[in-house]
Amino acid sequence: MPRKSSRKSARKTADAVDLTFRQLDVEGCTSMRLQAAAKLAMQVYARHFADSGVTSPQFAALAFLYRDGGLSVGRLAELLDTDQTTVTRNLRLLDQRGLVRQEVSPEDRRRRIVQITADGRRIFRAALPHWQQAQAELARRLGSTQTAQLNRQLDGALDRLRDSQGG
């Protein structure tokens, strides 16, 4: 026969789980909402980029390289809000296609500097209307005012989340 203390402990655990699920039902889960929204938004971009020759993450990397010229892999990862491993994987694909070139930094041989090539500039300019169409579709679907508000809220959230990681 089970001891009373183990039944009490099991009941407390069950009560805590029930309370958590009630909280989940009422408040929702921020992580699940963000993941679902990102997935649906990325599907819009993927559909528009399908014929452009680049993916949305590749387009973003090309955009920063187009704007800024040569960047270290680390700086590009910061600008893209991602890790260096993900950036390196995307750059490898762009490099194989001749859209970027990577060179060892003359100042620090441990760092690589990434440059967009002439073909990369051409592909970026050709992909730009695809990005604009994806942006316009999201604005139509969400409403332009709501899209602007969402972008401001996301920018603020990203700033606060970045700040809290450093401290």
Automatic annotation (TrEMBL):
Gene3D superfamilies reported in the protein's UniProt record? Winged helix-like DNA-binding domain superfamily/Winged helix DNA-binding domain
The signal peptide here is none
Q: Which positions fall inside the HTH marR-type domain?
A: 10-159
The cross-references to PROSITE patterns, in alphabetical order and at most eight, read: HTH_MARR_2
The organism's place on the tree of life at top rank: Bacteria
Give the matching Pfam families: MarR_2
Q: Which CDD domains does the entry link to?
A: HTH_ARSR
Q: Which InterPro entries match?
A: ArsR-like_HTH, HTH_MarR-typ, MarR/SlyA-like, WH-like_DNA-bd_sf, WH_DNA-bd_sf
Instruction: State the protein's name.
Output: MarR family winged helix-turn-helix transcriptional regulator
Q: Which organism is it from?
A: Ferrovibrio xuzhouensis
Taxonomic lineage of the native organism: Bacteria, Pseudomonadati, Pseudomonadota, Alphaproteobacteria, Rhodospirillales
